[in-house]
Amino acid sequence: MDHDTGGASTLSTKIVVNGTPQELTHDVRMTLLDALRDHLGVTSAKKGCDHGQCGACTVLVDGRRVVSCLSLTASLDGSEVVTAEGLGTPDDLSDLQQAFVDRDGLQCGYCTPGQVCSAQAMLAEVASGMPSHVTDPSALADPDVAVELSDAEIRERMSGNLCRCGAYVNIVAAIRDTAAQRAAAAGSAEERP
Hints:
The protein has 193 residues and is an alpha+beta fold. It folds into 2 domains: 3-87, Roll (Ubiquitin-like (UB roll)), CATH 3.10.20; 95-191, Orthogonal Bundle (DNA polymerase, domain 1). 37% of the residues lie in helices and 17% in strands. Strands 1, 2, 3, 4, 5 and 6 form a 6-stranded mixed beta sheet that branches.
């Protein structure tokens, strides 16, 4: 519903953030990043460049990664938003978050929530067979050939997330470990009668 506030338009938007329904009355120009941080107290998504170039604000919207600094809250009515807080808790980390800890895939930690959200979506993209610019052409030609998650593939798919500290080698290793663990778990689940 639109409201007249002396020139600035506001509206009401309903979203689900980390499993909790939220309703916001906000300026139509408010970004998802500002809604999360300033209005809902969800602070894992960071304001880095505020131009969609660094990835520090990456969150999942309906399972897909988006840079929240460029996503208007008004366009997300009815959407489900998951941030790093929604993937796991300090006492119960997700497998990917644990891999980042185990592989020391963070230094200052500023980019880490965006890296983890992006990696979560990236692994889902790979599982669904979505190619990247470096995907082996044989995987594109034959739907039965799975995308091989090489280091080059991981780097290409994570290229929108920058780390000023340079923890890339450990981030790639954490993602590779998680992919291998998930593949092994899926393989053992398929073997069960």
